[in-house]
Amino acid sequence: MKIEHIALWAKNIETMREFYTKYFGATANAKYRNEAKNFESYFLHFETGARLELMQKPDIPDSINDPMKQNIGLIHIAFSTGSKENVIALTNQLKNDGYEVLDGPRTTGDGYFESTVFDPEYNRIEITV
Fold first, then answer.
1. Which of 33, 41, 77, 80 would suit a FRET pair with 50, their CA atoms being 20 to 30 Å apart?
2. Average confidence score pLDDT of the chain
3. What is the pLDDT of residue 38?
4. What CATH number has the domain bearing residue 89?
5. Which residues on neighbouring strands pair with residue 69, listed in sequence order?
6. Mean pLDDT in residue range 39-64
7. Under a CB-based contact definition with an 8 Å cutoff, are residues 37 and 57 in contact?
8. What is the DSSP letter of 62?
9. Are residues 50 and 87 located together in one domain of the fold?
């Protein structure tokens, strides 16, 4: 069995699509629209076969969670870059482009080399080897 996809509600799926295609190599399908439900989405495909669905609907309320704190439930999406150098380079590129780096790059106590950043809508992204 495998995880087929993960879905995120977003305020602006265009900004989110651009972020994940630019920095993480995703390819987006054509935008899906359901006029009756006032719903739009993109499926983003990654080279490993993983997919991320970005969904937008104006009546979805903002999250009440503080993005600076950890909360019960899904907390981050991790992307493997293949090397420490790639983790450092991507983290620096995101920082230089104005995205908030929460942690790292660093080696964790369990031996992972990683950093954590926010995407444009304050979802946590872990960048690993």
1. 33
2. 95
3. 96
4. 3.10.180.10
5. none
6. 94
7. yes
8. P
9. no
